[in-house]
Specification:
about 290 residues; alpha/beta; Arc Repressor Mutant, subunit A; D-Maltodextrin-Binding Protein, domain 2; two-stranded antiparallel ribbon; about 25% strand
């Protein structure tokens, strides 16, 4: 397979459309379609499923996709090494991040990075912890923000300790102002998030042996706050998240306290591109300003 075939396979898989891929690659749709057909003939199996709703990878396509991504990353790394020798002029870095980091940190990080390297493109992928882990594992991103509780075997560079807080409806009263204890949490109705969206919260609930009652199972922070504002329950979330969302709610410290450690995980430290290495240094510098 040629590098052009790899770029076409990657772009079609990401866009789910020959037409959209053609636009991004500055090719005609027929050229993309012909290249895919030639690639499939060369490989000896079908790479894509074509249907009215779009284009998806076949099981064979899914198996070779991570290797295609790695090959394209290697090509990008080679280009950036050459550019570094000439003054790091161009390139692309892909980074994964969860919601609160995207809102609170990424705008300033990107601004600082682009001031130093105006011709380097940074692609940000926002998702859950599980999404970031998947993107790191498949090479879609070179680095990603994660909580230490989810990092597993990934190398994680600790950056920031983020306390967990409780959000409650306005006027919510506790024995100690601004603080809610585990005993007070025990009898409350909760608004909780599903699946991997709130791994650190679930850990706290388990550690404190809290058997919670909930009729609201949501998937994002905005929905959590909206439900709490309406008096449908209380919620737990990281303090970094509450900064941007908690307008008409009480923000209470937990007793005993708990936190999450936000870190930067690298897909492969040894093969990190020069542009990605520079981005990691900018992140380290900027996080100091966020403390």
């Amino acid at each position: 397979m040629t590098l052009l075939y790899c770029r076409i396979l990657y772009t079609v898989a990401e866009q789910g459309s020959f037409l959209k891929a053609a636009e991004l690659l500055n090719l005609t749709p027929s050229a993309v379609s012909h290249s895919v057909s030639s690639m499939e003939a060369e490989l000896g199996f079908q790479v894509f499923n074509r249907n009215k709703s779009g284009v998806t990878l076949t099981s064979y396509g899914e198996e070779i996709y991570p290797m295609v991504v790695n090959l394209l990353n290697s090509e990008e790394n080679l280009k950036q090494v050459v550019d570094r020798l000439n003054g790091l002029k161009r390139g692309t870095v892909r980074i994964g991040a969860f919601n609160s980091v995207c809102i609170q940190w990424m705008p300033q990080i990107l601004k600082a990075y682009h001031e130093k390297f105006p011709y380097i493109d940074v692609e940000v992928y926002e998702g859950t912890y599980d999404d970031v882990i998947h993107w790191l594992g498949t090479g879609i991103v070179e680095m990603g923000f994660l909580s230490a509780s989810c990092a597993a075997d990934l190398q994680l560079m600790p950056l920031y300790v983020d306390p967990l807080v409780c959000i409650a409806p306005k006027g919510f009263e506790t024995k100690k102002r601004g603080v809610i204890t585990v005993e007070e949490l025990q009898d409350q109705r909760f608004v909780i998030q599903r699946e991997s969206c709130d791994a650190d919260i679930k850990k706290y609930l388990n550690d404190q042996h809290l058997n919670i009652r909930s009729s609201c199972h949501v998937t994002d922070d905005q929905s959590t706050v909206a439900m709490v504002e309406s008096g449908l329950g209380i919620g737990l979330m990281p303090e970094l998240t509450s900064r941007n969302l908690a307008h008409n709610v009480e923000v209470l410290k937990l007793e005993p306290s708990a936190d999450r450690t936000i870190g930067l995980a690298l897909a492969n430290k040894k093969s990190l591109t020069p542009a990605a290495k520079e981005l990691s240094q900018v992140i380290l510098a900027e996080v100091e300003n966020f403390r």
